[in-house]
């Protein structure tokens, strides 16, 4: 079915989501519902099951598969392979050239895909589109912060030298461009930033919609995860990979890594203050 906004015909799109056995069933249910009930609904929905799921998660998946059988497709991976490999399997299965990425515990607002596909239609040379993201407390539903990112491509390109210029929870991109650069790398953490940096390095054009269109869950453990040694190692490793590729200079590599090491070393209260004061707006 053709969907038009003014004089523009919107492109059809696939939704790409990956889930594994540690996801909470209620979060997956809310996430799936938020994407399948968009004001401009998807033509294709690819859910990658990264390893065997729990019985509760399988029940959720089966219920959506039965209700949306004409568009809902499952890619089953027998063993957990990690986000990067799971996304690559999902990208292969997506039927549309425009892919809207969705995490299995986030919530998309009803007009997210309408606004992203409208921008793709208005500016057909764009390859990546993101949005602002609202972080909310998963227990109280209280808004904690809004993560803003640069809007226009020039600012995105500059910002990308040190940080991800797109909120990973909000990204939509061209399948053809993603396949041209080889998809996601086989990284266990921070794979989204490496993927975006490689897209931009190879000439992808991007833009962000300066509006909150995705809600991102956080809880009392989020800060601990962000300042953990595992996350810190992954943070530094990805920036080193990007630096070695020639995309960034040494200062671009060193400065964010020094900040991350500081967040790892300093107390939890300080880390929380830095995130809310400087890394979120």
Task: Describe the protein.
The protein is globular and about 50 Å long. The termini are far apart. It is 43% helix and 22% strand. It has helices at residues 25-36, 55-67, 83-93, 112-122, 153-159, 175-180, 191-201, 222-226, 229-244, 250-265, 268-279, and strands at 4-5, 8-9, 13-19, 44-50, 72-77, 98-103, 107-108, 128-137, 143-147, 172-174, 206-218. It has two domains: 4-219, Spore Coat Polysaccharide Biosynthesis Protein SpsA, Chain A (Alpha-Beta Complex); 222-281. It is of the alpha/beta class and 281 residues long. The strands form two sheets. Strands 3, 4, 5, 6, 7, 8, 9, 10 and 11 form a nine-stranded mixed sheet that branches. A two-stranded antiparallel sheet has the order 1-2. Helix 1 runs parallel beside helix 2, helix 7 (191-201) runs parallel beside helix 9 (229-244) and helix 9 runs antiparallel to helix 10.
Name the poorly predicted regions. none
Structure classification: alpha/beta
Q: Which fold name fills CATH's third level, the topology of the largest domain? A: Spore Coat Polysaccharide Biosynthesis Protein SpsA, Chain A
Q: Using the CA coordinates, give the radius of gyration.
A: 18 Å
CATH class of the largest domain, named Alpha Beta
Overall geometry: globular
Question: How many beta-strand elements?
Answer: 11
| Major β-sheet annotation | 9 strands, mixed
Q: Report the average pLDDT across residues.
A: 92
Please state the second-level CATH architecture of the largest domain: Alpha-Beta Complex
CATH superfamily of the largest domain: Spore Coat Polysaccharide Biosynthesis Protein SpsA, Chain A
What is the helix fraction of residues, given as a range? 40-55%
Strand content: 15-25%
Number of domains: 2
In sequence order, what are the helices and strands, one letter per element? Answer: EEEHEHEHEEHEEHEHHEHHHH
Terminal CA distance reads 39 Å
Number of helices: 11
Keywords: Glycosyltransferase, Transferase
EC number: 2.4.-.-, 2.-.-.-
Enzyme class: transferase
Protein name: Glycosyltransferase
């Amino acid at each position: 079915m053709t969907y038009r906004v003014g004089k523009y015909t919107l492109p059809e799109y696939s939704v790409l989501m990956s889930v594994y056995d540690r996801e909470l069933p209620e979060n997956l249910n809310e996430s799936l519902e938020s994407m399948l009930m968009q004001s401009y609904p998807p033509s294709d929905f690819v859910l990658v099951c990264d390893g065997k799921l729990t019985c509760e998660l399988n029940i959720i998946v089966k219920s959506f598969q039965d209700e949306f059988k004409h568009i809902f497709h499952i890619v089953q991976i027998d063993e957990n392979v990690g986000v990067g490999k799971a996304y690559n399997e999902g990208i292969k299965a997506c039927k549309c050239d425009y892919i809207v990425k969705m995490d299995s515990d986030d919530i998309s607002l009803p007009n997210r895909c309408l606004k992203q596909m409208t921008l793709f239609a208005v500016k057909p040379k764009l390859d990546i589109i993101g949005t602002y993201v609202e972080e909310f407390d998963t227990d109280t539903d209280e808004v904690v912060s809004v993560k803003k990112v640069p809007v226009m491509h020039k600012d995105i390109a500059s910002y990308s030298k040190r940080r991800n210029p797109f909120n990973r929870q909000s990204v939509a991109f061209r399948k053809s461009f993603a396949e041209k650069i080889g998809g996601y790398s086989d990284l266990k953490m921070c794979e989204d930033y490496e993927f975006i940096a490689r897209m931009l390095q190879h000439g992808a054009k991007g833009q962000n919609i300066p509006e909150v269109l995705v809600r991102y869950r956080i809880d009392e453990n989020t800060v601990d995860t962000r300042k953990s040694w595992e996350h810190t190692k992954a943070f530094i490793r990805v920036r080193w990979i990007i630096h070695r590729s020639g995309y960034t200079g040494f200062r671009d590599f060193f400065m964010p890594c020094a900040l991350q090491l500081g967040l790892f070393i300093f107390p939890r209260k300080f880390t929380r203050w830095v995130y809310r004061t400087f890394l979120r707006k």
